[in-house]
Design brief:
The structure is a homodimer of 333-residue chains. The first copy, chain A, is an alpha/beta fold and 333 residues long. Helix content of chain A is 36%, strand content 17%. Chain A contains 12 helices and 11 strands. The first copy, chain A, is globular, with a radius of gyration of 20 Å. At the A-B interface, helix 7, helix 8 and helix 9 of A face helix 7, helix 8 and helix 9 of B.
């Protein structure tokens, strides 16, 4: 568990997209962000207070989160200078970079000397159990997609926000690096050992109040041959009571798999539900989330209306239309 | 890749069952077994020549394989004495034990000094790729089960033998510890990192002759919530052209999951085929393998005949009836 609140480290981000992790934290957990730390030449801006390490510390920040991708997979000396100083000032560090903080001997040495923690959220730190399939209390909803990167995390975070706004009890459960940095904890599912995948999802979504919803971040797709096993571990470990289908309509083939066509929403509904019922016979599909970022306003509206009519389920783009109707579907569950 | 042939180490096996790994090697790859090494009090016997380390070395053995489970998860000093001497005599060591050879400092030191290799087959040693889903040449058959431990490995090994006896080209592809020790290589799939599961199965079953069959060892079950993700990685990474359904009819619930009923063979057929067609639209189910070990002779016969009539597929217990009819089904593919 990463200590909040954060100081967001944007480094020397060459463009706003390089800082998308910081943007995710800023968008979804603004209360977790005390300020931002930008170096010379930084081209990203979260529109929050620029702070020195000292100022952020005084404002209560506990962890410096690396919210930016590094160039060439190397943690530069310019970054190092800031990171070392942050440890010395009493910050923990958190990172989702491929190259790990723990593999940098200088950071390890300083962290140890200062009694601080290095969080590499790509690496599991828990010994997860084997899944036991026992039914847990409380409710769970999982977003499953026609493909990878169709907006499952965004859908889950938007749904969580809409539910809280309605006074419902909900918790976003992160299963990927960005989600973990946004919320401060979760399971880096793609890095878990095969035998423990489903068990890690059970661990992530324990017993809760009967009217509480865990909103489980989806990964991959049952129809994406590279990652489908990860997705099925989510379906069976998560024991979802409800599924939300996610889709991006303009994609010509499965991400990274030329020659593989996308399944239809009906395919994903039928396959997802049949598999989910193995772990939870009461599971049902409650809504559809469409990522319409490559469509015009009217086109998006028409597309969602068509899907809604065809599948008989509320269908929205949570970014364009909000996630209220998905939250309503869960409220009515 | 473990060097063959082997000297089978049976240690102080308290009963024959403790030596089931050695038995598997002896049953399926007798040519890999130069002899057996038994300590005082050993209650297992592979019915092959008892040999000293020197005799086995002279007879050409390259690797001492630990074919027995250890008591209490500790490699005893009595074992150590033999293992150290084996390294000194020029043997590599191979083990599927939970506690790893590489975690024993004395074995590591002696192996290094003698230039020998310690093979812990529970631990992947290859950096597997992410699956790319590209169609490979040659044919592949995968055994999928209603549950774990219903006889998928046995079915695959029996099928491999039957196909070779018919002059067909086939290779058993191990995906578990025992299978890896039997054949000398494979992928310990349950220990692979989630993102690389399907890629490891692609790696295991590369391009081959068009008339060659890879017989992929199955793991878990699509209906076993603890391990289903591993199974789906086999289905999508393996791109099987053919599936064989495996079942043990007397089980009252899924292994380790009280309260979870077994799926029907029809359920496994339909779900398995629908998922397999994502990676290989030509996939079909070609036969059924029933583990009738808890049934009488006549009961087993009747059961298989009933399944055969109901599913319209050849149905045998490969242990009782041989795997010839399954091999014929692949020959006719």
């Amino acid at each position: 568990m990463i200590q909040t609140p954060y100081l967001l480290f944007l480094g020397d981000a060459p463009d706003p997209l390089a800082a998308k992790v910081a943007q995710g934290i800023r968008d979804w957990r603004p209360d977790n962000c005390v300020g931002q730390f930008r170096m010379d030449g930084c081209k990203a801006d979260m529109k929050i207070a620029d702070m020195t390490l000292e100022e952020a510390k005084a404002a209560g920040a506990k962890t410096l989160v690396i919210g930016v991708a590094n160039r060439g997979g190397v943690i530069s000396q310019a970054w190092k200078k800031v990171l070392v100083q942050a440890l010395e000032e009493g910050f923990d560090l958190a990172s989702g970079l491929h190259n790990l903080l723990r593999d940098e001997p200088d950071l390890v040495a300083v962290a140890e000397a200062c009694g601080r923690t290095l969080h590499d959220v790509r690496v599991p730190v828990v010994d997860y159990p084997i899944a036991d399939g026992v039914k847990r209390k409380g409710k769970r909803v999982l977003a499953i997609g026609t493909d990878c990167s169709v907006g499952k995390m965004y859908t889950a975070l938007a749904l969580d926000k809409a539910m809280r706004d309605k006074g419902m009890k909900s918790t976003f459960r992160a299963t990927g690096q960005t989600g973990i940095l946004i919320t401060g904890d979760g399971v880096p599912l793609d890095a878990v050992i095969a035998d423990f995948m489903a068990g890690s999802v059970e661990w992530l979504t324990p017993d809760n109040d009967e009217d509480h919803w865990d909103i489980i971040e989806g990964q991959g797709s049952l129809f994406h041959v590279s990652y489908s096993g990860v997705t099925l571990a989510l379906v069976h470990g998560g024991q979802p009571d409800a599924l939300i289908l996610c889709h991006e309509p303009t994609r010509s083939h499965m991400r990274g798999l030329p020659g593989y066509a996308l399944p239809s929403l009906e395919d994903v509904r039928d396959m997802g539900l049949a598999l989910a019922k193995v772990a939870n016979p009461n599971c049902r599909v409650v809504g559809v989330s469409i990522n319409t970022q490559h469509m015009g306003e009217q086109e998006a509206k028409t597309y969602c209306a068509d899907v809604e009519a065809k599948l008989g389920l509320p269908c929205v783009d949570p970014f364009r239309h909000g996630a209220d109707r998905l939250a309503d579907a869960l409220a009515a569950y």
